[in-house]
Amino acid sequence: MNIRIFFTVLGLLSALCVWSQQTERRYLSGTGLGDGVTWQFYCSEGRNSGKWSKIEVPSQWELQGFGEYTYGRWYKKKGVKNPSMEEGIYRHTFRVPEDWRGKNIRLWFDGVMTDTDVIVNGVSAGETHRGGFYRFFYDITSLLKYGAANKLEVRVKKHSGNKSVNAAERKADWWLFGGIYRPVWLEAKPQTRIEHIAVDAKMDGEMRLYTELKGVKGKENLTAALHPLGGTDVCSEVRTWEVGHDSVFAHVWKNVEPWTPEKPRLYNLIVTLRNEEGKALHRTSVRVGFRTVDFRPRDGVYLNGTKLVMKGINRHSFHPDGGRTTNKELSIQDALLIKEMNMNAVRSHYPPDEHFLDACDSLGLLYIDELAGWQNAYDTVTGSKLVKEMIARDVNHPCIVLWSNGNEGGWNMATDKLFYRYDPQRRHVIHPWADFDELDTHHYPAYLTGVGRFTNGYKVFMPTEFMHGLYDQGHGAGLEDFWTRYTAHPLFAGGFLWAYSDEAVRRTDCNGILDSEDYNAPDGIVGPYREKEGSFYSVREIWSPIKIKPLQLTPSFNGRFLVENRYLFTNLKECSMRYRVLSYPSPLQSRAEGCTVDSGRVNLPALEPGETGYACIAAWENPEIREKFFSKGDVLELEAIGLDGKSVCTRTYPISFAKSYFEGQLASLKRTGKGCCVNETDSLITLCSDWVDISFRRNDATIYSVLRKKDNRIIPLKDGPLPVGMQMKLVSLSARMEQRGDAVLCVRYRGGADSVVWRLRPDGLLKMDAVLLNRASGGGGFDDAFTDNAILNFGFTFSYPESECTGMRWLGRGPYRVWKNRIPGTNYGIWQKDFNNTVTGESADKLVYPEFKGYHANLYWATIQGKQNAFTVYAATDGVFFRVFTPDEPRGRQDGIRTMPDFPAGDLSFLLDIPAIRSFKPISQHGPQSQPGTIRIKKGDEGLKLELAFDFL
Asked: Is 925 helix (H, G, I), strand (E, B) or coil?
């Protein structure tokens, strides 16, 4: 084979000057959600059936008001024998230009659910296509009228005539739809043409080009030119081969940059077929990334010689207003949101829209491309066709690092070999949830998984589903434990959270409400309209590629702290970090908002991936900076910036501990009073000031009432403190006045609490100082059983009616609520949220996040807002969790089983420990941060203090 290589720019320009023989594409439909073309439509059953009407193409016909909605687990519903089984007929008239005569014309469908028959000008275009997630075509060259109108009829069966297709695709944990839901187009190519190309482009520039050519005589030439995508139009190298009888052509391109998820460098490969005289017969192009993927048994999955750890998520192609009809903009949005969580990989249960793969290629996400088969497989004949269709479309995407043949038993092993036949890169094939071919993908593992598996085994392991995100469970809750354990093992290749978005579809048959089919589909880390749940930020922090090691700021802080480089390919010298020192006022001050005391650059060390070293605040040597840091700052904020200039994580650290912060704020209080007094009756003891009167019951020392005197209004905080996670028995209570004018109520207990001292100051501030867990016997009388054996919640609780609350403003971690095993992702700051009753993942309309109700971490102060009954509470104890009301359980939960741990009695609680939330498995199978607390008290222990202050003015 004669080979000629051209290296001059002029040679390239002359080779590319004629583009008349490009592939031509004309859409008969729109391009996706929000861009449809109207066709004629007839539906056989259900809504708007039995008559001709109009429909937008592409679309799912249920979303257009036709047929019936069905969720894929219909077979689990009592009395349901079949899903909805409508058939649809589409008709459309189109023109073909006269100058297409003599070309090869194909009619392409990017996706139709589920069986498709095509008739052009009254003649069948070919056999029925079965399978709803795949691109397919009909050669209609001989059926067309050129320069004239043509009639197209497409007959679609929602329920396939092939039992294996229905088992693979339509008995599944997702919504079942019908219709032409992806674009339709005509494609014209010359008779002598490049039918298909598959590229194997290695990281070092070596490329093998696998071609399927049609109409060639053996004397043609094939020319390839390479352009950096987004760069200059001029290329420095062209490669030409004589075709002969060859179909595989090789070359080593010089000076190419490899593709990685951190630097997704892409090139446009332009391939031209020429005749003997050099005239262009046909030209096509494909985007390529140069990278080498290989799976090494008992070692790992490698990209460009680097062992991968995939931080992944499972994604459906879905939008509530379109079903599986999406668009390029949505794909880019999803890819960016996934990247924002510091993820680097995606998997789905079927081939996605190609524009999502394009987004993964260009933005840098690894992808596992899966043949559908939720828990049942296609038969061999059907499956073989669909494997070929999937790989023909997707083979050249550099983002794809693994193929998947079905899911959870939905594989036909007879088709495994076809992946290697059609893919010249021979990417590894997995069977998700199985320990198969040296890669263990076990789903929903326990923290201590199994004998001889995962961290106890000797195979590469990568759970393709874990941390199930049903409602508010999973995802970030408990992830840190699992991730720390797994990444410590050399055979760990990554994991994929379930799932990306709630699959709540807009029900056009139910006044447009959103429906997630009860507990089946509300398991996203974002809502159906991509509303961010709390786990979004937890995962973002846990999977941050720039990891700040545990840091506590004390007067010994010298401006340096440890950072770890958790990138796979990037040196930290390519990244940056900045800091801000923030001052946050409380309602005791006249200033309402926080301010920046100081800001600047953090010097990052030049660390290779996996290395740890010290970062340093650049200006720390300046004594003025150090003085402002400690004297004026309340919070240190550190923001890490990736090599693309985007923020990868923001972490905050308290400079002021709770007690010193509160005392500093209290010193600025201008309000005064003349003094306090104590009033006692048979049933009540009342501490009185000029501003408020606080009455306590004698029989249990709980608050009976709070009277604000300026408007003679009762503030409805009462019925506390009641013990949570412990027992306590009242021993005595006594009231007194102190010299400085304070009214004091001293309450002593046996059990978990030793004492609570209430102090009402003349300025109207009420302080509560409690001493807990300082006596091994609890003062006697409990047989040592004065705390719960397993501590879920521990502290005090009060009553306050939800109906009186309109919102909350607070200083502490926020803005999202937390669980014991999902605190990462929240940051110190002043936050505001209005009252809502959001049930995570369950709503008839758009979800409102953050949820209002639940636990809030590291309280400094909080104002419970109301129309007339607002008050503020301050914590002078570090690490207080503030529980605000009790979230509603989802109405659609399975069998009425609670999805959240039990909340304390009452409405507002101040706690030193809170429970974790489970993820698919019971808490006992989660990691250490999810486990209930334990209490051990030894003689001489000083105990714990819980110090609060209430301002009712």
From this structure: helix
Residues pairing with 302 in the sheet? 294, 307
Half-sphere exposure of 334 (CA within 13 A, CB side): 34
Question: How far is the C-alpha of 5 from the C-alpha of 236, rounded, in Å?
Answer: 11
The DSSP secondary structure of 108-135, one letter per residue, reads EES-EESEEEEEETTEE-SSPEE-TT--
3-state SS class at 599: strand
Contact 788, 725 (CB under 8 A): yes
CA–CA separation, 495 and 162 (whole Å): 34
Report pTM.
0.96
Q: Do 773 and 943 touch, CB atoms closer than 8 A? A: yes
Q: Centre a 10 Å sphere on the Cβ of residue 610 and count the other Cβ atoms it contains.
A: 10
Separation in Å, CA 87 to CA 50, 155, 221, 506: 11, 7, 48, 21
Percent of the chain with pLDDT over 90: 93
Please say if the pLDDT value at position 233 is more than 70. no
Count of CB atoms situated within 10 Å of the CB of 128:
14
Query: Predicted confidence band at 780 (pLDDT cuts at 50, 70, 90)?
Result: confident
C-alpha–C-alpha distance, residues 449 and 468, integer Å: 16
Q: For position 10, what pLDDT does the model report?
A: 31
pLDDT exceeds 80 at position 289: yes
Alpha helices, H only, 564-644: 623-632
Give yes or no for residue 249 having a pLDDT over 70.
yes
Q: 125-177: per-residue pLDDT in tens? A: 999 999 999 999 999 999 999 999 999 999 999 999 999 999 999 999 999 99
- Tokens linked to 601: 């650059």
Classify the C-alpha dihedral 398-545-343-847 as positive or negative.
negative
Both structure tokens of 4: 């000629």
Residue 930 phi, psi dihedral angles, 5° rounding: -95, -10
Q: 345: closest CA among 497, 173, 468?
A: 497
Distance CA 567, CA 654 (A): 27
Q: How much is the mean pLDDT over the chain?
A: 95
What pLDDT score was predicted for residue 620?
Answer: 95
Residue with tokens 């539906």: 43
123 is written with which tokens? 């003649």
What's the CA gap between 158 and 166, in Å, rounded?
A: 10
Give CA–CA dist 289/203, Å, rounded. 8
Task: Give the integer Cα–Cα distance in Å for 701 and 720.
Answer: 8
Strands (E), 566-634: 576-583, 595-603, 612-617
Distance between CA atoms of residues 141 and 611, nearest Å = 60
What does the H/E/C string look like for 277-320? CCCEEEEEEEEECCCCEEEECCCEEEECCEECCEEEEECCCCEC
Q: At 213, give phi and psi (nearest 5°).
A: -110, 145
pLDDT at 916: 98
The tens digit of pLDDT for each residue in 419-428 reads 999 999 999 9
Q: Is the preceding omega at residue 721 within 30 degrees of 0, hence cis?
A: yes
Per-residue confidence (pLDDT) for residue 91, from 0 to 100: 98
Residues 899, 889: Cα–Cα separation, whole Å: 7
Query: What strands lie across the sheet with 881-884, from one edge to the other?
Result: 718-724, 794-799, 908-913, 881-884, 854-856
The residue among 801, 865, 828 whose CA lies nearest residue 587 is 865
Q: What are 636's strand-pairing partners?
A: 581, 653
Closest by alpha carbon to 116, among 179, 68, 60, 171? 179
List 749's β-bridge partners, or say none: 730
The CA R_g of the chain, rounded to the nearest whole Å, is 33
805-853 pLDDT, tens per residue?
Answer: 999 999 999 999 999 999 999 999 999 999 999 999 999 888 999 999 9
Domains and CATH numbers, the chain: 24-189 (2.60.120.260), 546-656 (2.60.40.10), 671-782 (no CATH)
Question: % helix / strand / coil in the chain, to the nearest 5?
Answer: 15, 40, 50
